[in-house]
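Both lines are retained for reference:
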Amino acid sequence: MLFKKNAQRFIGLIVTIFILLILMCASIVYGYTDTSWAMVWDAFQNNNGSNEHLVIETVRLPRALIAASVGSSLAIAGVIMQTLTKNALASPDIFGVNAGAGFAVVIAVTFFSMGNLQAIAWVAFLGAAAAAFGVYGIGSFGREGLTPIKLTLAGAAIAAMFSSFTQGFLVIDEAALEQVLFWLAGSVQGRKLEILTSALPYLLIGWMGALFLASKLNVLSMGEDVAKGLGLHTGFLKIGAAIVIILLSGASVAIAGPIGFIGIVIPHVTRSIVGIDHRWVIPFSGLLGGILLLAADILARYVIMPQEVPVGVMTAIIGTPFFIYIARRGFHAK
């Protein structure tokens, strides 16, 4: 643990916020269209309608805000899932929550031509909820009840099922394939600010709900029997935590598509920095999740320039070795 005292953690939090803001600014400045820091400042102070100024305001600013918001949401959802399931591999993508939300959105867009952003967000929530409850139900079957390994296997099965359904429907409708293929890879490119503002109320509820549950998650992490002995209503806590996970995961998928590995990597990195107190783990994870997705998105612009790699591919490249390491170390998570 890097920061052992609250004073150190507070200073670390301020530094992390600063790094997040710097990366957001860098995301606005750097890319295929050649711009500078001075040009960005001028675009917000005195927009002259030039191509560079339009790119800065209508493309890169929404992109930076979306990357920070989605990365934060996925990281926080990963923290809560790992605490609830006692599973080091728990995350929205591994447990099929992202795949369920993505499948629901694909069905809504391709078969019902749904274009309303609010409606798409609700569809994503329904898909995320269906996947979450499916994993929990399947993982609870058997004599031993719910175990980390059974949850992981159930999550892999649900994710594979929804991914197969999605690919099957897209093969049937080739026009839809062109429409949603890049979105399915996970991307913040080309997203308008309106899609973030439409989902922002759900994200805000999820973020505030996670902070509200932080101290209660500390009690739950000591064991369910201990938590009940201390007067914690674990059933209500799990319902509240599930709602937060669905809000954050569903809204993130509705905005940027299914982006993986952030929910696995960031919680473990955060615990190595600040320990296991969720009152610090959740805000730190939110900030570090935004930092990771912003950094991955900036790198994605330069790998095969002038083309761009979907940011979901970049997070997979970063996260896969970490996933293998965690899987080899064991499934248990505090």
Summary: Residues 6-329 form a domain with the ABC transporter involved in vitamin B12 uptake, BtuC fold (CATH 1.10.3470.10).
